[in-house]
Amino acid sequence: MSSPENQSSSERPATDNSSRRDAPPQASGAVAPPLDGVSLMNYEFTFQQHVDDRVTASFRIEADPNGSRLESPDTHSITSSISKYRVENGRTFHAYKDGSYMYPNDEQELDRQDYQYVVLKHVMGGKLYFAPWSQEKPPRNVLDIGTGTGQWCIEMGDEFPSANISGTDLSPVQPRDVPENVHFYVEDSREDWQWYAQNETFDYIHTRMTVGAWQDLKEDILQKSYDRLAPGGWFEAQEIQCTILCDDDTMPDDFELKVHFDDLEDASAAIGRPLKLAHKFKQVMREVGFVDVEEVTYKIPINGWPRNRQYKQLGKMWEHNLITGIHAVSVGPLHRVRGLNQNQIQMMLVPVRTAISDSRVHAYHKFFIVWGRKPFPNELQTSAQGSGDATMGGAP
Ligand SMILES: C[S@@+](CC[C@H](N)C(=O)[O-])C[C@H]1O[C@@H](n2cnc3c(N)ncnc32)[C@H](O)[C@@H]1O
User: Is 109 in the pocket of ligand 1 (CB under 6 A)?
Assistant: First the structure.
């Protein structure tokens, strides 16, 4: 098989959709309007368990020899070079474009990402998207950049069976058993997008939790997305701001978790992968030419400190996500940028973990959802006539 860079669309390492991976438990229940100024009173965390009623106590459950993961990533039929992962400090990292992204891709991290996916879906009221799609107006051709475990693509594929859903990532870690309308490709999205036909356009491009992947929002993804969207198509980002925030005086300046995330932000920025990007999407999308750009933000408590039951539940889930993920988000920057070894990193994380669970500090993360539309040519003309800005948007 040829290297991914040289593959034509017919031989690209798309996933074989022959069987189907089960999805993680899905959330139900009406959830939150955005948190800024609005309460989460109706926030319900009701996990539906998909258990077959016919299963009885006499039924014997077969054990998976591969362990607890839904499907082992190394069962993909992909070029061996892109699955020979870098091993560093007890974690594995993507092999394709080795070194360009600092966060692990091992089972432990994929399990955490699946968990985080469910929590964030709760935060967004069970929604997969804020762009104005519906069963009456479904998207036709959808791209998820930095798809990770591919969960978003799989659920979009289920919700919109007539749509063609593509997910791209540096790591071939997506399951094979996905809806027939879902395909995954190995790609570095910072480079020219090679894997799809040159005349192909999308009507919806999505990213989630990709900060740390981009050097320059505009160049790396937003301009390319704009250029590849059909007029009237939508781009949507669902991204967290890593900075630890607090609205009262309970967070001291030396709060270990805040100091740690500030250091990760500095380290990541030092090698050209800034983490403080979520708040920039709206502005840069407008600069690129998107219209009808909207943004909503949610506050996610770092642990169960809130009095409100729903916030408390959300905080406890986020605490679990942080505790299980803090090594993954730290190990790359601390080793590759700060030069620390595994022991030093583990020692450093001890007080950070304690801080994550410190409910005396009313700290939170901010989660941004930003979406905007590529204008139709007649809108561009009108805008140019009105504003004298003929180059707005840089549309093809
Ligand atoms: C934190 S994960 C989020 C995955 C998924 N979007 C989610 O919400 O669960 C970020 C993903 O972006 C991918 N990524 C990083 N840099 C990339 C690049 N240059 N091109 C494509 N994917 C990239 C990583 O491999 C990783 O799977």
Answer: no
The answer to the question of residue 2 being in a domain is no
CB distance 4 to ligand 1 below 6 Å: no
Distance separating alpha carbons of residues 115 and 132, to the nearest angstrom: 26
Where is 118: in which H helix or E strand? helix 107-123
Averages of pLDDT over runs of 10 residues in the chain (396 residues) are 35 36 36 37 34 44 58 47 92 95 97 97 97 98 98 98 97 95 95 79 97 97 97 98 97 98 98 97 98 98 96 97 98 98 98 98 98 94 51 27
**Is 180 inside any structural domain?**
yes
* Residues contacting 313, CB < 8 A, separation 6+: 43, 45, 304
Task: Tell me the pTM.
Answer: 0.81
Ligand 1 test: best mutation among 107, 121, 169, 207, most atoms within 8 Å of CB?
169
Could you give the number of structural domains in the chain? 1
CA angle, corner 372, sides to 366 and 378, nearest 5?
165
Single-letter amino acid, residue 354: T
Burial class (CB in 10 A: 0-12, 13-18, 19+), 65: exposed
* 286 domain residue, yes or no: yes
Q: Which of 107, 210, 240 to mutate to test the pocket of ligand 1 (most atoms within 8 A of CB)?
A: 210
**Ligand 1 lined by 290 (C-beta under 6 Å):** no
**Which of 330, 328, 340 minimizes the C-alpha distance to 261?**
330
Helices 107-123 & 151-159 angle (0-180, nearest 10): 50
Residue 140 is assigned to a structural domain of this protein: yes
**CB under 8 Å to 192, separation ≥6 — which residues?**
224
